[in-house]
Amino acid sequence: MEPKRKIINVVGAVIVKDGAVLCAQRGPGKTLSGYWEFPGGKIEPHETARQALHREIEEELLCEINVAQEVCTSEYDYDFGTVRLTTFICHLVEGSPHLTEHTNIQWLAPADMPQLNWAPVDRETVAALVSDQSIIR
User: Ranges for the Nudix hydrolase domain (predicted)?
Assistant: First the structure.
């Protein structure tokens, strides 16, 4: 019998502006460095997914968002554990994204997002956005 894998619950922001989605590239020295992701992070024990996402975007991108509807929840088994990612459509309320933990950000139309090298757990959200672009309207 295999040992139970550690489940890491995280949230990601699909930040939408003028029909484009914010894509963020993970910085050096981090797990999955160089991969693209939806910014966000771990859900703390005392937080809801939406509260965690709001906090993480304030910390990572130094801006404020409104968290709207859920896009999807996906899981991926990495060597360090299973990441369970829940993504939400988000809109900027105040400020604009600043690079603090990421090396690059791009605003892309959903159809152009598959050209990036996405972290495996983020790929289901990318596929959902490409197949139903009305999600971001």
Answer: 6-130
Q: What single-letter amino acid sits at 52?
A: A
How do the domains of the chain map onto residue ranges?
7-130
| CA of residue 27 relative to chain centroid, distance | 14
Q: Give the pLDDT confidence of 99-131 residue by residue, as tens digits.
A: 999 999 999 999 999 999 999 999 999 999 999
Residue 31 CA, distance from chain mean position: 15
Residue 1 confidence (pLDDT): 64
DSSP 96: -
Q: What fold does the segment set 7-130 form as a domain?
A: Nucleoside Triphosphate Pyrophosphohydrolase (3.90.79)
81 touches 72 (CB < 8 A):
no
DSSP for residue 118: B
Whole-number Å distance between alpha carbons of 22 and 112: 12
Q: What is the pTM of this model?
A: 0.95
The better pLDDT of the pair 9, 133 is held by 9
